[in-house]
């Protein structure tokens, strides 16, 4: 049986996990949500998620060896290496990883029927425009290196010859496999310099699955920044899974910040959150 799976390592993300689960329920998905937790998630939170229908699984944290200095685009990324533990959840034949800051807008059960060759994953292209000019992002994250800049809805220009495909790991279709998990964990353990891993597990997964990932339409991982940076592509009525990268809805003023350019999208999250009993 397939399942959705997410990672919950920071207590402050509990509203995100609960709202993700509720949004999947609202779409009448046929599949359960597995929540990977680490030891710092308390029993109350685990019980709450279990009572709401989640399958809670404690996993061993994945991280580079101690003493390797971090170079992350955001400090909270230090724990996302543990996302790689999804490959250890072999009780399911196929998993769709969904970040805890996502909101299912439509039923997306069809992803489990997508063909996936052995040793491959499926994911959506990342937007590498860095529209907010975040200084800690890679220097080559500019519109000229963004896949979405070359779509017909944008300008239709051909991709440069040197273009290097790169996916966002917030939504991934994968087949759990202990051998793959071991290889990924060994790669993390072998890291001596994190300069190339500003987006930790995402950068490593792009390395590992080079030539072995199938691109999905953006609607399965609709980064909220696309709504402004690639407005000609964006169609909220087509979006199936909304990704709240950067600031999180539960961290704002109940979605009532008129100065937030993503306020309307955040309101969608709050609408679902308020449905939780």
TrEMBL record:
GO MF term list: glycosyltransferase activity
Coiled coil, from the record: none
Q: Which UniProt keywords apply?
A: Transferase
According to the record, the segments passing through the membrane are none
- Give the domain of life: Bacteria
Q: Does the keyword Transferase apply?
A: yes
Q: Which Pfam families match?
A: Glyco_transf_8
In terms of InterPro entries, this protein maps to: Glyco_trans_8, GNT1/Glycosyltrans_8, Nucleotide-diphossugar_trans
Provide the protein name. Glycosyl transferase family 8
What organism is the protein native to?
A: Sodalis ligni
Cite the source lineage: Bacteria, Pseudomonadati, Pseudomonadota, Gammaproteobacteria, Enterobacterales
């Amino acid at each position: 049986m397939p399942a959705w799976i997410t990672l919950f390592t920071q207590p402050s993300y509990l509203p995100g996990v609960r709202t993700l689960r509720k949004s999947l329920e609202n779409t009448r998905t046929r599949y359960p949500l597995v929540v990977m937790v680490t030891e710092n998630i308390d029993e109350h939170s685990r019980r709450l998620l279990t009572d709401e229908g989640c399958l809670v699984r404690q996993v061993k944290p994945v991280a580079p060896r101690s003493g390797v200095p971090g170079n992350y685009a955001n400090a909270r990324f230090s724990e996302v290496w543990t996302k790689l533990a999804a490959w250890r959840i072999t009780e399911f034949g196929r998993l769709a990883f969904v970040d805890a800051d996502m909101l299912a807008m439509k039923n997306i059960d069809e992803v489990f029927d997508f063909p996936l060759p052995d040793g491959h994953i499926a994911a959506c292209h990342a937007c590498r425009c860095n529209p907010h000019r975040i200084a800690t992002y890679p220097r080559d994250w500019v519109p000229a290196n963004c896949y979405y800049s070359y779509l017909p809805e944008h300008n239709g220009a051909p991709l440069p010859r040197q273009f290097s495909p790169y996916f966002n790991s917030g939504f991934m279709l994968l087949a759990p496999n202990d051998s793959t998990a071991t290889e990924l964990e060994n790669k993390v353990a072998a890291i001596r310099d994190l300069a190339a891993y500003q987006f930790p597990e995402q950068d490593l997964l792009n390395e590992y699955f080079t030539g072995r990932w199938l691109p999905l339409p953006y609607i399965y991982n609709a980064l909220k920044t696309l709504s402004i940076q690639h407005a000609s592509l964006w169609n909220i009525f087509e979006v199936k899974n909304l990704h709240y990268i950067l600031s999180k809805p539960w961290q704002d003023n109940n979605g009532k910040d008129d100065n937030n350019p993503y306020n309307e999208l955040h309101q969608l999250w709050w609408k679902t959150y308020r449905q939780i009993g």
